[in-house]
Sequence to fold (268 residues):
Amino acid sequence: MTGASTGIGEAAALHLKGLGFDVVGAVRRDEDAARLRESGLRSVLLEVTDADSIAAARADLGDRPLAGLVNNAGIAVAAPLEFLPIDQLRRQLEVNVIGQVAVTQAFLPALRAARGRIVNVSSIGGRVALPLVGAYNMSKFALEAFSDSLRRELLSQGVDVIAVEPGGVRTPIWRKGGELADELVGGMPPDVERLYGRLIEGVRKQTARIAQNGIPASAVAEVIGTAMTAKRPRTRYLVGRDAKVRARVSAVLPDRLMDRAIARTLGG
Fold:
């Protein structure tokens, strides 16, 4: 379980442990590893953007077959695409996409040995893109494509691949993303406020609503548990009413009408 230090990752690791799995939570900091061990979980240090770290984590787990890999590590970068620093876009894709592929490559032989499962924690943002979070949406759209391609490549090898697509979840990723957005926007030209001020304010309000009314991480953890244990799991699981409504609406509304509906919601 990557990204197991907080939020969905921590909740899912504890839930899977309750289902009888011998869970190894992958985290980046020693203090998070210690906290997981206090909760009765095994832990390993793993930075998904560092090849040596991935190799060390793989070696630490030994040669045992692996029942499942949950790719949950992720960050959220928010800024108007016109002014988004390219190094921040690279960071977004490195963590949310390249890192997931690298970890999967490292653990696939162990998964194949157990005919295990790969669960990729995506987002409704991997189906419906919103303004100002384009970098995050790009990463999740890519994760959806990764899930489909990998599932089809492994079809005859007994390893299934499932995507979990939550809507708004009360997790630290949005607080951290908001702090980064404030930092990025604060360093941008004055034109940002003139051109995108209303949208920025609308997205801030939406993020605040998620922080207050979003679904709990435990709801996503339960779906990850289903993805890992169901006899015939779906290829995708939408989690949360907002995710299901947005997916349904986007499937029937023409793009131009969807554009206007999103603009009205955000005040853009």
Remarks:
- The chain is about 60% helix and 10% strand.
- Residues 154 and 245 are 31 Å apart (CA to CA).
- The longest strand covers residues 160-166.
